[in-house]
Structure formats: C-alpha cells, structure tokens
Amino acid sequence: MTAPRPASDLNATGASPNSTLRPDAETAPQWAATATRRYAVLRGLRVAGSTPGWVLFATSIGYGALARDADASLGLTMLLAGLLYALPAQVVFMDQLARDASLFAAMLAVMLTAIRLLPMTVSIVPYFRDDTQSRWLKVVAVHFVAITAWLEGRRRLPGLPVALRVPHFIGIGAGLALTTIVGAALGYLLAGSVPSVISAALLLLTPVYFILSLIGVAVRLGDWLAISAGAALGPVMFLAAPGLDLLLTGLVGGTAAWAIEKARQP
Amino acid sequence: MSAIPDGVAGVLLLIALFALFHESWRWAGLWLSRELTTDSAVFRWVQLVATALVAGLVLRLIVFPAGALESVSAFARVGAMAAGIAVYLASGRRLFLGVTAGMVAMLGLAAIS
Lengths: 266, 113
Description:
The complex is a heterodimer of chains A (266) and B (113).
Chain A: H1 37-45, H2 51-69, H3 74-83, H4 87-98, H5 103-114, H6 117-122, H7 137-143, H8 147-156, H9 162-190, H10 196-217, H11 221-240, H12 245-264
Chain B: H1 7-32, H2 41-63, H3 74-90, H4 95-112
C-alpha cells in the first residue's frame, strides 16, 4: 500500500515496532546486522509483547474459560497449552473431556486438527534449510508451528540471515507459548466474571489478526488468490465436510491459486 | 475422561500421546521438507495451501462462531472484519490499528444491531 517506512520511524507510530515491520522486506532489519544467535532469540521473545502476542493472550483467555466449563483442572489447562501449543487441538480436547469421551476418541479428534500443521511446517522449515548449526534445534523450532508463530515466521524470517532464523523462530515461539499459558490460566481463573460482549470482542481479535496478517504478507497474485479462495471455501467446506474442512479448503483453494499464478506468471 | 491418571503418570501419558497423535505432524513436516528450497514450485504450492487454509479458518470463525461470539449478530461480526481490513490498509498496514478497529467496530455494531 505505502512505501516502507525507514526503521527510525518505527518507534514513532504508537504501535509496537515489531508489528509494523514491513512484511516484504528482502533486506534484513537493522538489528540483524550485528546480532548474535542469542540476541535473535531475545528479539523473537519480544514478539510476545507486540500485537500478535496480545491477540493470542486474548484468545487464550477464552480457551481458559472454556476449559473451566469442561471441568478440567488448572494444571491440565496449562499443560495442554504448552504441549499441544495449538488452540484448535486444545479446544477439541476440552470438548471431548466435557462429553466424557474415551482418551482414544479424544486423541483421534486432536489428530484430525493437527493435520493442518503439516503444510504449515513444510512452508516454514525451508527457511531453516541452510542452517547447519541447528540440526536438533529444528525439532524444537517446529514445536512452535501454530498459526500465530507461522504468520510471524512468514513475516520475519525471509529478511533474516540464515543463521539467525532458527533462534529467532524459537524465541518467537517460546515467548508466545508463555503468553498462551499465562492467558489460559487467567481465563480459567476469571471464567464467568467477564461480560459476554467483552468475551465476544476478545474472541473476534483472533480471526481479524489472522486475516490482516495474511494480507500483510500477500505480495504476489497467488497470495491474493489463495486468501480469496480460502475465504470463500472455508464456510462451504465446513458444512460439506466438517473435520476435514480446513484441509480441503487449503488443498482446493491453494492448488487453484498456485495453478493460476503459474499460468499467469511463468 | 477419567482415564487420565493423576500426577506425574498422567503428565507422562499425555506427553507420549500428544507426541504420537499431534506433534508427529510437525515432525513429518520437518522430515518431508528437508530437501525443499524456498524458491521451488513445491514450496510455493504448500505455502499457498497453508494460506488458503488459514483464510478458510478465519471465515469459519466469523461465519460459524463458537462460544461468546455466537451472541453477536453476523452483521456485527462481518462488519468488524471489514472495518479491520479497511483500517489496516488505509493506515499503511499497521496491525495494531487494524485489530483495534475490528474490535471497536464489533462493539459498536453489536450495540446497534
């Protein structure tokens, strides 16, 4: 929309400097020029204090309240947030718990929500490819593949030197993990005492943040086509094939967008 | 689901089960993408699949909401998303302003509809 603002402007916007980094910046942000791997972790942790962190915090409050409704313990509520680190899976698990489903049935339901993590991981890991120092750290890094970290990774990793990408992504993921665990605990403790219109406004933050972030990293024709096709197909597939709806939406919408982009811009 | 034992045994059981049923998709992604480069056609395809998937999730959350969001009219939900996008684009893609505009618009539209 507008020309990238120089880095010196970033702090003057009132919003967090992290949230205003240009998505399509092919050049490294200023801090990366002299950064060590350890400093890249710290810069990643700071994402938790920016807009994506606050949005995740708000959603996590909703999850915590839901877990309380499902009669889960506070410990289980927080454990799920850290171990699964994917809100749809956490919500599905709590729902199964509330329905007195067997552990096996709950695990199958959780597994179905996790299939979407495969394409998300495959579209993040190649940014780590040439980093030979981080072989085992990559296993840690992929634990943090979930929508928020994926969006922030897509926005921030391409502009970074290869050696900083894994540590930066781990920093982003660890900071957001702490955010979601604390938010879940707070929601659990506050459950029932928040007016429903405020709860609704907090829940709305998540889809709005998701769509704005997708738009934020959209540069080429295929990005816009994939966003439009996914948006159109999402509700339809939910009615046609609940459970597999997201995967089908992604495969059909994404493949169509990819094919059209390839035909138009060979 | 009383099948989850209390204490350390329960935690260990959940760690094992989640690794098998949930984390394994992330590990599969790590393994499958070991030869993939960011400039390849396959990478671009997977990236667009994931993009469409997240866009689909957004509309599902707005059109078929769960929890407290159900109590707000569809008009307020869709209007809030539109307001968020409009302010985001008009402000030179400032995430904070777009997200805040979406929330304010929802509260306003929920009050009048």
